[in-house]
Structure formats: C-alpha cells, structure tokens
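Thread: Newbie trying to understand structure tokens

Hi all, I'm a second-year student working on a class project, and my supervisor (Dr. K.) asked me to get a predicted structure for one chain before our next meeting. I've only ever worked with sequences, so writing a 3D structure as a token string is new to me. If someone could post the tokens and maybe explain what I'm looking at, I'd be very grateful. Here's the chain:
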Amino acid sequence: MNEPLQPKLSSAHDPNTLLIAEDDATLLRVTSLLLRGYGYEVLAARDGQQALDVCREHQGPIDLAVLDLHMPVMNGKDAFEQMKALRPTLRAIMVTGSSDTNHPKGAEGLIHKPFEIDELVRAIRNALDSRALQT
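---
Reply by user tm_fold:
Sure, no problem. This is what the structure looks like when written as tokens:
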C-alpha cells in the first residue's frame, strides 16, 4: 500500500537541486513550492530555453531536471538533449499532458498530468536513488 509521503521539515545534508521547467505558471509555482517543502532546492524555468539558460548559468550541481515535454520556445526533449551536452551526468523526468508514452533517451521516466505530488516525489526519489547507486 502506498502511504502518503511526508514533507521533510529540515535536512541535515545539502538538499538535492532540481530544475523544473513548466510553461503553466500556476503549476510551476505550486510544484516548486511543494517540492521545496520536501526539502529540495528548486530552480524554476518557464520553457525549455530558459531551462537551458539556467543549466548553463547555475554554478552548483543540478541533480535532476523535471521537464514538460511540450513547451513553447523549446520543448523538453530538445532542452534535455542540450542540457546533457553541458552536464553529461544530468538525469531527467519528463512530464506531459498528452497521451504520449515515449520519453527521450536517457530520461528516467514519464509522468502524465494531472499528477499527484506524491507521484512526482516518488519518481524524483527513485531517480536520485538510482543515480546514487551508480556513483
């Protein structure tokens, strides 16, 4: 049985940094706020180009990207491919509101909108855990 995940109130270690790219401003704001409540540092972008810019300019690590597949300016797939060129170890989870079931090569998975925050947090934790096992 899946029990609800509880937000972390504090963390004894540096938080994982997530880059979230979503063109729906409300969804981006709410998701960012909720993920911060789970103890993550969140970098937010409104489209794939802005996500690529953040990836290029952010001095610290980015542990995982959560990218909407369908965004204006640059879609999530193209953004992820270009971000991987800058940060070869970067992993991503793709999010889509369409019935698409394919995600770009190298992505950790695909989540369909609308989603529950627990579903996203589980996917993030799984991706980060699998990354930790490989390092």
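A couple of things are worth pointing out once you decode it. The domain at 17-134 is CATH 3.40.50.2300 (Rossmann fold). The CA atoms of residues 97 and 113 lie 5 Å apart. Feel free to ask follow-ups in this thread.
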